[in-house]
Write a structure and sequence with these properties.
alpha+beta, 2 domains, Creatine Amidinohydrolase, binds manganese (II) ion
């Protein structure tokens, strides 16, 4: 199917190699004192220069924020002197998506937690192939993270990816689930992403993190709102976008809020570690087919 079509494969690989470069550049630029907004914009513009588009806004997760935060428009907040950063970046080429993340200890005190999820990913990836047991992969991830003295986050998962669809319905658990006999199908693109924490091992929803996606088209009375809806559909399809990406449109903030209330847009709530623990994450995207498994973002 799609992953074995040579043209599709080429686009997936291109998205992956741009995402890898973007992740590495982001981790390099993210230093105590640098302005978060500037780093995010620099990385997103790098993606465009390489011929891709962000598949979602760069997610900056500091400490207990596990996911779903990107700086609001014009924000001048700086990276703190110490803490744990997750840098999660996605690239699309013609709708074909790569999703990858890395963690960094700012100020140098959190290396062990950073390494716990990295080791879990490194141990899990060789197990991935068509027919591989999800229970085995989850158990491996959980054991490696617990072996390092931490907990896996049980309610965050890896996922299948389809064209224009970042979370396509198939989940890859980060914990042991011995009762689950699901296996990985062939001809699928998946992201594997273990999260480790020194907290409770689960996330809860927080405030909106300035990230939205198109949810449901509606016929809108107000022509300028109707036009805004069309702009969003044209630019981002169903993929998540940042409010700051719409700042070129007149009254964008007001219009976003209106479309949120009407249910046209979905707003992503930040995912926060349940007990306030710090969280680390590493992620790669893989093409899984009978001909082999390719890590597009490695
Ligand atoms: Mn992902
Ligand atoms: Mn990701």
């Amino acid at each position: 199917m799609f992953a074995t079509d040579p043209e599709v494969r080429e686009k997936l690989l291109k998205a992956g190699s741009i995402a890898k470069e973007a992740r590495e550049r982001g981790i390099e630029l993210s230093e105590p004192g640098s302005v978060i907004y500037d780093v995010v914009e620099e990385v997103e513009s790098l993606i465009a220069r390489r011929g891709g588009r962000p598949a979602f806004p760069v997610n900056i997760g500091l400490n207990s924020v596990a996911a779903h935060y990107t700086p609001p428009y014009g924000d001048r907040e700086r990276f703190p002197a110490s803490g744990l950063l997750k840098f999660d970046v996605g690239v699309e080429v013609d709708g074909y998506v790569a999703d990858t993340a890395a963690s960094k200890s700012l100020g140098g005190a959190m290396h062990e937690l950073v390494d716990a999820s990295r080791s879990a990913l490194e141990s899990a990836l060789p197990l991935v192939r068509p027919g591989a047991s999800l229970a085995m992969i989850g158990t491996t991830i959980e054991n490696v993270i617990r072996g390092g003295g931490y907990r896996p986050i049980s309610n965050l998962m890896g996922h299948s990816i389809e064209r224009h669809n970042l979370h396509a319905g198939f989940s890859i658990y980060n914990v042991a689930r011995s009762d689950d006999s699901t296996t990985i199908p062939s001809e699928i693109v998946i992201a594997v992403e273990p999260f480790a924490t020194d907290g409770g091992g689960y996330v809860v929803s927080g405030k909106l993190g300035n990230i939205f996606s198109f949810s449901r088209e509606r016929k809108l009375e107000d022509p300028s709102l109707q036009e805004f809806q069309s702009i969003i559909m044209e630019r981002y399809n169903r993929l998540p976008f940042a409010e700051r990406w719409l700042a070129d449109v007149r009254d964008w903030r007001k219009k976003i809020n209106k479309l949120l209330r009407l249910g046209v847009l979905h707003g992503y709530e930040m995912l926060i570690e349940g007990k306030g623990g710090s969280v680390s994450q590493w992620e790669h995207t893989l093409i899984v087919s009978r001909e082999g498994v390719v890590r597009t973002t490695a």
